[in-house]
Amino acid sequence: VQLVESAGGLVQPGGSLRLSCAASGLASDDFTIGWFRQAPGKEREGVSCISRRDGSTWYVDSVKGRFNISSDNATNMVYLEMDDRKPEDTATYYCAIDWGGAKYWSGNYDSLPPYNFGSWGQGTQVTVSS
Description:
By secondary structure, the chain is an all-beta fold. The chain is built from no helices and ten strands. It is globular.
């Protein structure tokens, strides 16, 4: 399996940016794609994820109402639309895949555990600054 993120970039506070994650080599439809981010000196943080099977989604509290995750199963693409960007959103963003079947949207998860995910993309830098 290979995941490749689109290029990030520089965004002004309050601006919008859409990241994409292209997946290839998928062996089945029972998986979850997650978006993570890591700022310098901080731990990797789960931002959002989406189920390939039924489109269920999960978001970390800090991005709820601002970010939207979606997928196009026909093209094996997952998108992260980021609106109302804030300086604290500055980080390297990664997508990764979880084959384990955890239902992160069930209400039992406050965070997205990176150790459940693999086949990490190379990461893309997103900077929010005026």
